[in-house]
Specification:
Shape of chain A: globular
Number of helices of chain A: 10
Helix content of chain A: 25-40%
Order of helices and strands of chain A: EEEHEHHHEEEHEHHHHEEHEE
Distance between the termini of chain A: 28 Å
Oligomer: homodimer
Chain lengths: 328, 328
């Protein structure tokens, strides 16, 4: 017995956002992943097809962030139903198709978007009984098992949308933060790959207390700026003295791109997640277009790299089930 | 030529406030220092008298936080007037009387209150030409030279009042944060002395990155809670995983007092500054009275120490010149 395909879209996201390493994230529009799911009489989760990844993602569901998130959802639904073995013989199965709509290893939450889209699609295909909070945990488990680490700072904004504060590992607490009207971002992705795990290891286990104090001062200031809609205060807070100084070494032309963004009027500019993508924060979409052009020009002048970019509101809509024929 | 005595009051303050080490501070009411100043034909700052300190503070102006802050103000006014040598033969002098209204080494910003009161009194005695920002820098210099370190997280709330975010050393940037109606604190001071310098050295130069992430997540959440007036969110944020685990060892009965505060309904409880005072954050003055009683009882049960305490609004009025005969 199969149900019709249910499609869910989950957006890309910018995490860290300057001072909020592992703590802040916001959803963007215009980029994300699609997962189609339908029930199957074969227990467990099966990945029928992945498109848009140039064949680079594992096809085996148990090794794929979307497949694992789907399996987690099956387990949770089974637990709700009082069944012990979700993926056993008495279990329900799902078939998945994953359509990658965003590049891998870009710093834009690619694995989180796949996991979130899978969790939302599978839950919807099975009747939609799980809470958003449970879906978040399923998605984070998908990321964690497939990638070795997950902090929720991409999965939470991708699922809920908006700008979120993430605290705690495993089952993080999520609090939404307001976004001033018009706040937008330019995102530039230089065509180099950064592996999140390696980027993280480089940071080391300890940081100078003085840097930590600077960082939490700016994290506090960014929240104050978001609540008060004070762009100057937001601008004063977009500084990362912990991860950026290490990770920018991996992004050729980083200083030139950052300088170009600030000179074009951006409120701030830093790495999105562990990079190589950079975000420039701007007062409006129009300013973000100017900033993007300046960042692209700087990339071209300072390096031999190519790059692509786009402009988005800060804190776009989160993951959602699409109607038949609807485009994300 | 002498002018009449001008008296200024500067309140005690709670710094750190859980997650905001060197970053958050708020003024309290009912405790603080008084400085009286009048001009003198003898250049420089002279301390005529200190009361309320049991003779423990240096009487020499150049070694006393109030005396140094006063001297800084003289220098700044001289610079405004185009005079090179503020304290030289062509300079104006001031005489000071310092009335300590709060205990030393209590974690309640005693040296900051003296410095702020002196800066405000001397500026007023000389015509009040300096900005609040300049007075803050004079007070911080007073603290820094007399005590070896100053971060502004006591001086800024003592001068400006309210709840403030402090970023940067030397000339820190200060941003005010809103305080929800009714937010109050119970403050208990166990009668043991903690020297700020020694308390700081114990923290070491580096901290685990994981703790730093926890800390800035809570710092961000506390700001979100203050803006939204969400007491549950504020409560979730009053945790200090950086300084408290080290410094609580110096405060006998800390765990028992903290537990009693939380069980009595406090939103959170941690050390004020480097201790030994503790604050309990509460929804109202009435709740703060209950919390204070619980904290006092716990101190008495768990230790042989005595302690004194009081209740205050969070974010009281800042430093001010008093009218003749006015009590602070």
């Amino acid at each position: 017995m199969t149900t019709p395909w249910i499609r869910a879209f989950a957006p890309a996201s910018v995490s860290n956002v300057g001072p909020g390493f592992d703590t802040f994230g916001f959803a963007v529009e215009g980029m994300g992943d699609l997962v189609a799911a339908r029930t199957s009489s074969i227990p467990g989760a099966r990945l029928l097809e992945i498109t848009g990844d140039d064949g680079s993602l594992p096809r085996e569901a148990a090794k794929n962030t979307a497949g694992i998130a789907a399996s987690q959802v099956l387990d949770r639904i089974a637990a709700l139903d009082g069944r012990d073995k979700a993926n056993g013989e008495d279990g329900v199965g799902v078939e998945l198709r994953l359509e990658k709509g965003m590049p891998l290893a870009s710093g834009l939450g690619s694995s989180a978007a796949s996991a979130v889209a899978a969790a939302v699609a599978v839950n919807a295909a099975l009747g939609g009984h799980l809470s958003q909070e449970t879906l978040l945990h399923c998605a984070i488990e998908g990321e964690r098992i497939a990638c070795g680490a997950a902090h929720g700072d991409n999965a939470a904004p991708s699922l809920y949308g908006g700008f979120v504060l993430v605290r705690g590992k495993g089952t993080p607490r999520i609090d939404p933060l307001p976004v001033p009207e018009g706040l937008s971002c330019a995102i530039l992705r230089p065509h180099v790959a950064v592996q999140t795990g390696a980027a993280r290891a480089l940071l080391g286990d300890h940081i100078p207390l003085a840097n930590a104090i600077t960082q939490w001062g700016h994290a506090a200031a960014l929240v104050a700026g978001l609540f008060s809609g004070d762009y100057e205060l937001i601008s004063s807070a977009i500084h990362d003295v912990v991860a950026e100084p290490v990770r920018r070494e991996w992004v050729p032309g980083f200083e030139a791109i950052q300088r170009a963004a600030l000179e074009s009027g951006a409120l701030g500019c830093s790495l999105s997640g562990s990079g190589p993508s950079l975000f420039g924060l701007c007062r409006s979409q129009e300013e973000a277009q100017n900033t993007l052009a300046a960042m692209q020009q700087a990339l071209g002048s300072a390096t031999d790299l190519r790059g692509d970019g786009f402009v988005s509101v800060v804190g776009a809509q989160g993951a959602r089930v699409l109607a038949a024929g609807e485009k994300p």
